[in-house]
Amino acid sequence: MSGASIMLLALAVDAVLGWPQTVHARIGHPVTWIGALIAALDQSFNRETSSETTRRTAGICVAISVIVLAAGIGWACASMLPGGWPGLILAAILAWPLVAARSMHDHVDAVARPLIAGDLPRARQAVSMIVGRDPSQLDTAGIARAATESLAENTSDGIVAPLFWGVIFGLPGIAAYKAINTLDSMIGHRTPRHEAFGWAAARIDDVANLIPARLTGLLFSIVSVRPRIALATMWRDAGHHRSPNAGWPEAAMAGALGIRLSGPRIYEGQLSQEPWLNGEAPDPTATDLNRALALYRRAMLLLAVGLALLALL
Question: What is the pTM of this model?
Answer without folding.
Answer: 0.94
